């Protein structure tokens, strides 16, 4: 994604803005224009809940390009409290204290830096609730 379109979409990332179908009342993230459940186009923006539960997770020990210095990386599928599932990094852990069913809360963090200009990307991660 280029930095300009990223900047334009920043609000969407920051607020975890998804979609809500007025017909069948389901929520979606990422946002949809047509309901994946009932096909309705009666869709409105809806901010997703910022808390959820870990359904499953994996720990990546290999450094990924652009993520140097952050490994091991804990990636989890999180079921938000409206039943929407998101894939996100669990921050502030090496994974040893993470288990399925843990409650997590969304936080807004620097994701990575890119290129010589050091373009910084921000996005959501999740953190275990203390
Ligand atoms: Zn629907």
Structure, described:
The protein is mainly beta and 130 residues long. It has 2 domains: 1-48; 49-130, Beta Barrel (OB fold (Dihydrolipoamide Acetyltransferase, E2P)), CATH 2.40.50.840. It has 2 helices and 8 strands, in the order ααββββββββ. The strands form 2 sheets. It has a 5-stranded antiparallel β-sheet with strand order 6-5-4-7-8. Strand 1 (17-21) and strand 2 form a beta hairpin. It starts with a helix and ends with a strand. The model has no long low-confidence stretch (mean pLDDT 84).
Structural key phrases:
single chain; 130 residues; mainly beta; OB fold (Dihydrolipoamide Acetyltransferase, E2P); 2 domains; 5-stranded antiparallel beta sheet; 3-stranded antiparallel beta sheet; 2 helices; binds zinc ion
What's the CATH class of the largest domain, please?
Mainly Beta
Intertermini distance: 34 Å
Number of domains: 2
Report the CATH topology name of the largest domain.
OB fold (Dihydrolipoamide Acetyltransferase, E2P)
Poorly predicted ranges? none
* Range of strand content: 35-45%
Q: Can you list the strand order of the major beta sheet?
A: 6-5-4-7-8
Biggest sheet, open or closed, and with what strands and sense? 5 strands, antiparallel
Shape type = globular
Number of helical segments? 2
Give a count of the beta strands, DSSP E runs of length 2 or more: 8
Whole-number mean pLDDT: 84
Bound molecules: zinc ion
Task: Please tell me how large the radius of gyration is.
Answer: 16 Å
């Amino acid at each position: 994604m280029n930095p300009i379109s990223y900047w334009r979409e920043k609000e969407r990332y920051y607020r975890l803005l998804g979609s809500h179908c007025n017909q069948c009342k389901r929520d979606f993230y990422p946002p949809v224009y047509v309901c994946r459940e009932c096909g309705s186009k009666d869709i409105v923006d809806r901010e997703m809940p910022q808390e959820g539960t870990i359904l499953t997770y994996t720990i990546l020990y290999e450094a990924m390009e652009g993520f140097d210095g952050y490994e091991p990386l804990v990636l989890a599928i999180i079921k938000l409290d409206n039943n929407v599932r998101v894939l996100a990094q669990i921050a502030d852990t090496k994974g040893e204290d993470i288990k399925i069913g843990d409650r997590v809360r969304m936080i807004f963090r620097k994701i990575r830096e890119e290129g010589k200009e050091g373009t910084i990307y921000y996005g959501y991660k999740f953190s275990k609730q203390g």
